[in-house]
Amino acid sequence: MFDADKKVWDVIVVGAGPAGLSTAIDLAKGKASVLVLDRKQEIGCPKRCAEGLGNSGFKRLNLKPKKEWAVHEIKGAQLYSPNGKSVKQKGKKVVGYVLERKIFEKDLAIQAVKEGATILLKHQVVLAKRENEKVKLEVEVNDEKKTFEGKIIIACDGIDSLTARMLGLNTKNNLNDTDSGYQYEMTGINGYDEGCLHLYFGTDVAPRGYVWIFPKRKGTANVGIGIGAYEQKTAKYYLDKWIANQPGLRGGSIIEVNAGGIPVGGFLEKMTTDNLLVAGDAGHMVDPIHGGGIAIAFEGGRLAAKHALIALKKNDFSDEQLSNYTKEWYEQRGKELMKRVKGRHLLEQLNDEDFNYLAESLTMEEALKIGNGNLTKTDKILLFTKKLIRRPGLIKIMMKYFSDSGEEKK
Amino acid sequence: MYSIVVNLLVVKNNSNKCLYCGACVGVCPSEALTLKDTRIIVNMEKCISCGACVKICPVGAMSLPEKK
After folding, report:
1. What are the tens digits of pLDDT across the range B53-62?
2. Looking at residues A374-384, what average pLDDT do you find?
3. Looking at the complex, does the CB of residue A175 fall below 8 Å from at least one CB of chain B?
4. Which of A122, A174, A182 sits opposite B59 (nearest CB)?
5. What does the pLDDT look like over A89-127, one tens digit per residue?
6. Which residue of B lies nearest to A224 if distances are taken between CA atoms?
7. Which residues 110-139 in chain A show a CB within 8 A of chain B?
8. Cα–Cα distance, B19 to A25 (Å, whole number)
9. Across the interface, do A180 and B56 touch by the CB < 8 Å criterion?
10. Residues in chain B whose Cβ is within 8 Å of chain A
11. CB contact under 8 A, A234 and B59
């Protein structure tokens, strides 16, 4: 097609997902020469994702939902406790969308190429090494081996990222901080409000996690599960068992099967080394509570592009220069992340009865405030004196959570 | 002249079950696993039989032989 391998690229992006493509778009806009490599045969497929993206995400990213890929409007959420009781919050306004990711990502790919990036599929990086202050990537393409040279590598190659590891950055996931995810896209199903996201909790339903229904079209939804990796039985086992008990779902047809590991332990502490930045799942950029990662990956990709462009301008690809990326990321996101990590630990300590109790006594607003660590002092006093007073076990867990979460005093 | 050490406890991937999501690769502490397109490649020399991949796999495609 063309001589993609005949030159030294300013930046080679490994992985064409939301992180890799957003970084490629911004790099190309900044006039850097950008090559995107992906090992797969199709962009956006197979997804490892429930495809939900909230308005706050769209806002942060300055992204407008297009009807080609923002296929379903969401107006609220409904949470179910183990005993089947639920709390629902739904308004008239659209609060987010469920996406068709393969179209979303192709749209991003088209944008990246329009801006000047080059994308190559079925290119598997098998070796990465530094040479003369640049990085040489050895890439398997069909039966051939090719070499590409880049000044900077941005690894956006997902949870199975090896590119960063080859260049000496540890992106491994601790088993305790990784959830096991499994999902069906189902059609011909009913029995749930299609304007809401639905989350089901309980140790029998999804130990250390939850089951979700994310409606995608009329009668069609992503039905999935995320559970702690240490469970004896598989995520598939729990999801199949749950679906078999749902009258509105068990007769439906499965039109796609997805799986994936979810890094929920918080962002990677160090996201750069010489000539290298990581973004997206490879940098563990996932929300520790709900496990979502599209918006965060996108944001991470953009910030990585910003710092790669600065490094190119200075012609300095050292870790010292690039590590400003990690610094800025933590300045923007670190504080919120710590709250979310604590929130996750809180959730993990709750037993089924706690969940049942909370579902009965808390409003959705209160639950969200607790999860986000946004309670004022008055909120806390009310919570403890009015709501938790009858469950001493919960008070203990909550006290620990609040004393750990180190929020500002108001 | 040559000594061949075969690790009999090496982890196995069942490609009939595998959805090549790469979760196992992400948690492998010894870089023994690689995801190539739709296949999980096990490096027998690097596998330390820790079972992390078996635990994370959403579909039960990874297994360790039972110790005798």
Report:
1. 999 999 999 9
2. 76
3. yes
4. A182
5. 899 999 999 999 999 999 999 999 999 999 999 999 999
6. B58
7. 122, 124
8. 30
9. yes
10. 19-29, 31, 33-37, 52, 55-60
11. yes
List the single residue in A159, A165, A259 with the smallest CB-CB distance to B31: A165
Residue A120's nearest CA partner among A275, A13, A9 is: A13
Which token pair is A368? 């969200």
* A15-43: average pLDDT: 97
Query: How close A31 comes to chain B (CA, Å)?
Result: 31
Q: Evaluate whether A11 touches A150 at the Cβ level (below 8 Å).
A: yes
pLDDT 10s digits, A295-353:
999 999 999 999 999 999 999 999 999 999 999 999 999 888 888 888 888 888 888 88
What per-residue confidence (pLDDT) applies to A375?
73
Is beta strand A178-187 parallel, antiparallel or unpaired with respect to A52-54? Answer: unpaired
Look up the pTM and report it: 0.91
What amino acid is encoded at A40 in this protein? K
Query: Is residue B24 included in any domain, yes or no?
Result: yes
Q: For residue B49, give its domain range.
A: 12-63
Q: What is the pLDDT of residues A196-245, one digit of tens each?
A: 999 999 999 999 899 999 999 999 999 999 999 988 999 999 999 999 99
- What's the CATH code of the domain at B23? 3.30.70.20
- Please name the residue of chain A whose CA is at the shortest distance from the CA of residue B56: A229
Nearest to A71 by CA among A216, A173, A196, A255: A216
Instruction: Tell me the DSSP string of A58-89.
Output: HHHHT-PPPTTTEEEEE-EEEEE-TTS-EEEE
CATH numbers and ranges of domains, chain A:
8-47+102-172+265-322 (3.50.50.60), 72-99+175-263 (3.30.9.10), 341-404 (no CATH)
Q: How many CB pairs under 8 A join A and B?
A: 93
Identify whether B39 is part of a domain. Answer: yes
| CA–CA distance, A212 with A197 (Å, rounded to integer) | 7
Domain count, chain B: 1
| Mutation site, B11, B18, B27, interface A, largest A CB count within 10 A | B27
Do the beta carbons of residue A140 and residue A150 sit within 8 Å?
A: no
Nearest CB partner across the interface for A159, out of B23, B55, B59: B23
ipTM given for this complex: 0.90
Kindly state whether residue B4 falls inside one of the protein's structural domains: no
Here the tokens at position A81 are 């406790």
Across the interface, whether the CB atoms of B19 and A263 are under 8 A apart is answered: no
Instruction: Give the residue-averaged pLDDT of A35-57.
Output: 93
Contact assignment for A236 to B52 by CB distance below 8 Å: no
Is residue B36 in a domain? yes
Which residues of B fall within a CB distance of 8 Å from A180?
Answer: 23, 55-58
Instruction: Report how far residue A219's alpha carbon sits from residue A191's, in angstroms, rounded to the nearest whole number.
Output: 9
